[in-house]
């Protein structure tokens, strides 16, 4: 027997930064909630700066538009450090919000939330101590 389940409509966006990958799902809700890997965002991201980074697309991106709609945000993030993860979540959330309203593209793009930051740690090369640091050279 099949149960009649009403499927909740959600919008999904993927964000990346360094080695972090965030899969963000947003669903319309009565109040804005943010869950990261099964924990509340305040519990997962310890600093106020990281929490602000994550909520920037909702706070700044929806500021000019009719941002009265609240979202239930569910995030699954892996890899990297805490700051890298928060930036990946920011990009994923911005991409998910774009799927809800294409008019948000211009303000999100101007704020830089849709750009993938390509900077990553450079690999170590053979014969060097680090990526570019060479051993001390002596003539004799």
Sheet with most strands? 5 strands, mixed
The total count of helices amounts to 4
Radius of gyration, in angstroms, nearest whole number: 20 Å
* Through-space gap between termini: 85 Å
Q: What ranges have pLDDT less than 50 throughout 5 or more consecutive residues?
A: none
Strand content: 15-25%
Order of helices and strands: EEEEHHEHH
Secondary structure category: alpha+beta
* Shape category: elongated
Tell me, rounded to a whole number, the average pLDDT.
Answer: 89
Quaternary status: single chain
For the largest sheet, list the strands in their spatial order. Answer: 1-2-5-3-4
Describe the structure.
- A hairpin with a 2-residue loop joins strand 1 and strand 2.
- With 140 residues, the chain is an alpha+beta fold.
- The radius of gyration is 20 Å and the shape is elongated.
- The protein contains 4 helices and 5 strands; from the N terminus they run E-E-E-E-H-H-E-H-H.
- The longest helix has 19 residues.
